[in-house]
Every structure is written in structure tokens, then in C-alpha cells.
Specification:
Number of domains of chain B: 2
Largest interface: A-B, 56 and 56 residues
Helix content of chain B: 25-40%
Largest sheet of chain A: none
Number of helices of chain B: 8
Distance between the termini of chain B: 81 Å
Structural class of chain A: mainly alpha
Distance between the termini of chain A: 16 Å
Largest sheet of chain B: 6 strands, antiparallel, barrel
Shape of chain B: globular
Helix content of chain A: over 70%
Radius of gyration of chain B: 29 Å
CATH topology of the largest domain in chain B: Thrombin, subunit H
Number of strands of chain B: 12
Structural class of chain B: alpha+beta
Number of strands of chain A: 0
Order of helices and strands of chain A: HHHHHHHHH
Strand content of chain A: under 5%
Order of helices and strands of chain B: HHHHEEEEEEEEEEEEHHHH
Oligomer: heterodimer
Strand content of chain B: 15-25%
Number of helices of chain A: 9
Chain lengths: 176, 339
């Protein structure tokens, strides 16, 4: 009863707070697709807010971010949408395990989630190539490079996202 | 507290997650069924973002140039010598090309050959590169308002880069030759004396070296053989330089591209549309068409008319024996230049 009262007394977040994770994710999509194409870390906002404030990073927001990446990158429609949504489902399901990691283990945990996203994207494209006669299987090297760049950019991106979270959103899961 | 969060997630988020996963799968399948599903949205977004991309491009290009020039500072002297030598060779080639161009023009006129279709070109800047794991594309700042159309070839100073597959009002998407979905019919000019030209299909595989498919097994290729577009299908002009043949360890053949899409900043979009065929007028004499107009006959009252009379006939017949010789000498000089 007490917990219900406390949950009920939680202030309703403003529109800007609600939209911050989505806008941050879309900004990452934009940054990853400008001419400086070496930047990775697309999954970081999804991963971060799924752990910290899953009520703000909703499945619909993840769908929008993935859809934005599909539009901006010009790739086959739905590939990154599916990869992001499935990664979100995995992280949300194992949220307590991922959230309990710290230090190097946190980076390893993120690398695992990113590897899952990249593997999902690769298998989806491979499946599409399998359905199209004459298409080669996608090579593994570029997706491994993408994974490496994403993990490499995790710490700086997470710092920026964390700073943004404290400035715009404020409370994290433990604070409420 | 943690329990409250878990309850909240289960009641609010689990159901949408299932629906969202289903939506994502539907999107993948729809994209497969209708590949142009997101094209309009893409073009619209790119058109909107073109000014931003153009603004972002300038400092990035400047930074790239700065970084790229750092390692060249220490080799300026060697590069200068190399460029002077190359310049001298290119001047020789230019002279040979001018002579050959004139001769080819005369031969075409003599044979009433249908001239190659003329091409207009639109100069465009690269304002974005989608160098994602599953695709190799670039975005140009020229669209339908610049008469850029899907299917047109995009080249840089060295060779073909790709072709346009999507055009907006102000921007275009280019599918690179290295992209997984790229298929270009090509002609491989095999080394001298090994069987002439070979047709093949160049297939991108997202690596830097596209694969050569459908090469006849009876044909032996050699590393360094020239690869150009064949023009089959009428979508691309023939003879666009693409690259050179290289082999892999497994016996397959690939193409080392001449162009470098990663470094190209300014490119040309070739507007290849076959105009109506306009062969030379049939009433024109071959000698006139060849630029060898016979001299007018001298009046008989003039001195030494006998010596002057055979001159036109001599002029007409002169090119026939001379042509193979000059062609042979041109070929020889070209070989000398090669060496």
C-alpha cells in the first residue's frame, strides 16, 4: 500500500523530459549518418535509458529511433528497427543483471547488448539476401567494425547521455 | 520500490513490446516486398537536411584535407619529381590522343559510323556518406531540379563510382559499385593477344573489391586487365573506366576500382540519354568527310597543267596505303609510351 502511494505521488514528467531519450536517440542517428561516418554508439541511448528510466525509453520510442536509422542510412527497411527493438527486449528482460554491472563489466555488458543488435541486423540482412537470388551474404568484417566502434564510443557517449539525463530528466530509477 | 517498477513495466510496457516487435518484423517483410517503401521518406528527409549536411561537410572536408596532408609534408620533394615526370608523359599522351582523335573522326566519317551519344554532365558535391555495415551509398547535392535522374552514372576524375538510385528535389542517393546490391555489366579488355574483350557482370559485395561474375571459363584473365562499363541494357554509357582485374587466392576475380568513393568530394552525374541517330549525310563524298577535299582543277591555259592534273587523284589515293602505316606507327608510339 505504501509503495502504491509512493508510486502514485510520483510527479508526472513534463513533455521535454518524456521526449529527451527519443530526441537523444534521434540525434545519435543523425550524428552517425553525417559525413563523419566513423562515429558509432547508436545503441547507447536505448541501452542507457532502458536501464535507467524504461518508462521514458518506451518500445515505441525504440521503434522510432530504429525507423529513423533505417531512413537515414538508406539500408533495407526495418533491419535496424528490428535489431534495436529486439535488443531493447533483451535488455529490458535482463535489466537487473545489466544494471548491476559496473566498471569494466558495464562495458562488457554493453558490448554484449551491442553484439546482439549487430548479430540481429546481420542475420536479418542475410535472410533477405537468401530470399533474393544472386545476392551474396553480407560480409562480416563491416558489422564487426561497427560493433567495435560502438563499444569504443560507449564510455564517451554514455558520459554525455548521463550528463544530459541529469540535466534534463534528473531522477534515475534509484532516486524515485 | 524496485517491485513497483517491475509491476509498472509489466503492466504498461510488455504488451506494446510484443506489438512493436511484430511491427518491426512486418516492416522488414514489407521492405522486402516493396523495396521503394521508404524511398519517398528518405528523399524528403535528405532534402530537408541538405543545407545542414552541406554546412557540416565544409569543416569535415577541411579537416580531412588537413589530416591527409600531414603525412605528405615529408614527401613533397619526391612527389614533385614524380608529378613532373608524370606530367611530361601525359603531355606525350595528349599529343598522341589529339592525333588519334582526328584520325578516328575521319574514319567515322568515311564509314558513316553512327556517332556515340553525347553526354551532358552535372557537377555535384558529396554531402553525405552512408558507410553503414550493409550498404555503401553517398548523398549528392544535386536532384531533380538539376536534371539528375535514377540510373545515371556518377564518376569522379578517375573513374566510375556508382549510379543514382534515388532522387529528391535537391539531393540524390548514389549506390556505390561496392554495395551489396550493385550489378554492372562490364567489358574486360584482356591483355594484348589473349582474346580481346570479355563480357562479365561486376557484383558488389560491400568489400573494396567487387566480384566479377559470369566470366566464361574458357577465358583467361590477367591481373591488370582493364574493366570498363559495357553499356548493355542501355542504362549506362559504354566505355566508362571502372578499374583493373585482380585475383584472390581462391581463383576468383575481383576489380580494383580506379575511383575512391571515400575520398571523392566533387563528382559528375552523366546524363546519358541516347539522342536520335544522326549519321553523316550520304551526299557527302568520303574524301570530303575525311577532310581531304580535292583541289580544284587548274585551267588548261596555265603552265604545267599536266603535272598539276594528277594531283587530286594522288591526294585521294594517298591515305589508303598510308593509313595502315600511320595506324601501325601510332600503335607503336602508344606502346612506346606504355613502356
Amino acid at each position: 500500500m505504501a509503495s502504491l502511494e509512493r508510486a502514485g505521488s510520483t510527479p508526472r514528467p513534463g513533455a521535454l523530459v518524456v521526449l529527451t531519450p527519443l530526441l537523444c536517440g534521434l540525434t545519435c542517428v543523425f550524428i552517425a549518418n553525417i559525413p563523419i561516418s566513423v562515429l558509432g554508439g547508436l545503441v547507447v541511448p536505448v541501452y542507457f535509458w532502458c536501464l535507467v528510466r524504461p518508462d521514458l525509453m518506451t518500445p515505441a520510442a525504440v521503434l522510432t529511433i530504429g525507423f529513423g536509422e533505417d531512413i537515414m542510412s538508406g539500408g533495407p527497411p526495418g533491419v535496424w528497427t528490428l535489431a534495436f527493438v529486439l535488443t531493447y527486449a533483451l535488455v529490458a528482460r535482463q535489466r537487473d543483471s545489466f544494471a548491476g554491472l559496473s566498471g569494466l563489466a558495464a562495458v562488457v555488458g554493453f558490448a554484449g547488448a551491442s553484439a546482439f543488435a549487430c548479430a540481429t541486423a546481420w542475420f536479418t540482412v542475410a535472410f533477405l539476401a537468401f530470399l533474393t537470388p544472386g545476392l551474396h551474404l553480407p560480409p562480416l568484417a563491416p558489422i564487426i567494425g561497427e560493433l567495435a566502434m560502438t563499444v569504443l564510443f560507449y564510455v564517451p557517449t554514455a558520459l554525455v547521455v548521463g550528463w544530459l539525463h541529469h540535466r534534463m530528466v534528473g531522477a534515475s530509477r534509484g532516486d524515485i | 520500490m524496485a517491485n513497483a517498477w517491475k509491476i509498472a513495466r509489466k503492466s504498461n510496457a510488455q504488451l506494446p513490446l510484443v506489438i512493436v516487435i511484430a511491427l518491426a518484423i512486418v516492416l522488414v517483410l514489407l521492405g522486402k516486398a516493396q523495396s521503394g517503401l521508404l524511398d519517398k521518406a528518405r528523399v524528403h528527409v535528405t532534402d530537408l537536411m541538405a543545407p545542414v549536411l552541406q554546412k557540416v561537410r565544409a569543416p569535415v572536408a577541411g579537416f580531412d584535407r588537413f589530416v591527409g596532408s600531414i603525412d605528405q609534408i615529408f614527401s613533397v620533394y619526391e612527389q614533385n619529381l614524380k608529378l613532373k615526370e608524370e606530367n611530361a608523359r601525359l603531355r606525350q599522351w595528349r599529343n598522341a590522343a589529339v592525333v588519334l582523335q582526328g584520325r578516328v573522326g575521319r574514319y567515322q566519317a568515311l564509314l558513316h559510323a553512327v556517332p556515340d551519344p553525347k553526354m551532358n554532365a552535372v557537377l555535384a558535391q558529396v554531402i553525405g556518406r552512408a558507410n553503414r555495415p550493409f550498404l555503401q551509398t553517398m548523398i549528392l547535392n544535386a536532384g531533380r531540379q538539376n536534371h539528375a535522374l535514377p540510373g545515371q552514372a556518377v564518376v569522379d576524375a578517375r573513374g566510375m563510382i556508382g549510379r543514382i538510385y534515388l532522387t529528391g528535389q535537391r539531393t540524390s542517393w548514389v549506390i556505390l559499385l561496392t554495395d551489396l546490391n550493385s550489378r554492372i555489366p562490364v567489358i574486360i579488355s584482356t591483355s594484348a593477344g589473349h582474346g580481346g574483350n570479355v563480357q562479365a557482370m561486376m557484383t558488389g559485395d560491400n568489400s573494396a573489391y567487387p566480384t566479377l561474375d559470369m566470366v566464361s571459363r574458357t577465358v583467361t584473365l590477367h591481373e591488370g586487365d582493364q574493366v570498363t562499363s559495357s553499356g548493355d541494357g542501355g542504362l549506362l554509357p559504354s566505355g566508362l573506366p571502372i578499374g583493373m582485374v585482380v585475383s584472390d587466392r581462391g581463383g576468383g576475380w575481383h576489380v580494383a576500382l580506379l575511383a575512391d568513393p571515400g575520398a571523392s568530394q566533387d563528382v559528375e552525374i552523366l546524363n546519358f540519354s541516347k539522342p536520335p541517330e544522326t549519321p553523316p549525310a550520304t551526299a557527302q563524298l568520303p574524301v570530303e568527310a575525311a577532310g581531304l577535299k580535292p583541289q580544284p582543277l587548274q585551267p588548261p591555259a596555265q603552265p604545267a597543267p599536266v603535272a598539276a592534273a594528277p594531283a587530286p587523284a594522288k591526294t585521294v589515293s594517298a591515305p589508303k596505303p598510308a593509313a595502315p602505316e600511320t595506324a601501325a606507327s601510332d600503335a607503336a608510339s602508344a606502346e612506346d609510351l606504355d613502356r
